[in-house]
């Protein structure tokens, strides 16, 4: 496959990740903007991406193919945030977030005298990466009006507040993750069983593409009980992608398998187990969650100071026949585990609210997964409770057979655990932005030119670009031999 040497085309077209809010919707904290940035494996590349007033930037890669000795780096201007990719092949994922409104992108080719590299002409070398869009965070994410609700005053606490006073609840909460979906929305999820599976709501991750483009951050909690605003108290992003195993809109749940970053481990987080019989009316409960994508909080009591309980065993909520409770939640708490304070087993999956809040009975989830032989190992209460041994280097063998075949296998990216020095970078000239010419819609190509693509397809790069390009914009990209494949 032939690639273009350092082709850059910038399109300032904003695209909201999610339209108007509905009963079941992950809260939106950012949006996508289209961009085309690429370079071949032999050509150095440097570019500074700016999006004024953005809370964060997250680059989306259509493909990454970094050879041995090559280095692709994404960093903040001051070098305090730094993510690198080397000897990696991966497709369709968002890079880890860079806080702020600016990010440097640099690519350094291998220092090789190998004829396999040097004999390639610049225009014949494969492309090292292709960035097709980026997500930018809204300056102030307006999440008011979401269904999940604080009932009266907020009685939830920062997770660390329970570390000494109620250690079992704090320990179980370690298996709860912050999910960043498609670069612009947030939810909560939790490790289910010992093989690296995670459960959240269907309205958070609803399909294979959502699963592939979700980042999973564990340990995002503060060290003091004080409430801290914004994306402070960061955790560890153990995976920037996952594989869809199963999803059920009727019961509003999704099961995924994490594609761990190289060297990442889940051992320190433990995992949760579900009670087969489900919730019991009147039993005390608690909810570990990431409301609005903030540091982890745990809700245990209601306004009166009484312990939160299962108040209703069957209410009409976002889906039929849910359990009801009045523990405090907010937008972004969707997908949180509702745990029994008696045995610390998951009894419901939080998905809706309003005082009462609503959760899917976990017994329904188990019944569905059992019928399809998809219950992960150690996922049911009463089995082994040891910490998972799943790591990227030595992944455990899964007994789950995924029901989707649309997920592209991904090679994990090695996370940076120490701050690396920021390479010397010169700001590339900002490309001239012009509107694409308005031209008649070309006929859809025949003879297999689209290879299954339903939008804009580059025959030169072999890439189907995301939704958002128009037919006129697509065919204007003559340098990459773009073809319009839409209707």
Automatic annotation (TrEMBL):
Top-level taxon of origin: Eukaryota
Region (Disordered): 385-440
Keywords: Signal, Virulence
InterPro entries in the cross-refs: Peptidase_S1_PA, Peptidase_S1_PA_chymotrypsin
Biased composition (Low complexity): 385-421
Entry-linked Gene3D superfamilies: Trypsin-like serine proteases
Region forming the signal peptide: 1-20
Coiled-coil ranges per UniProt: none
Keyword Signal found: yes
Keyword Endoplasmic reticulum part of the UniProt annotation: no
Cited PANTHER family: LYSYL ENDOPEPTIDASE (PTHR36234)
Protein name listed in UniProt: Serine protease
Organism: Aphanomyces astaci
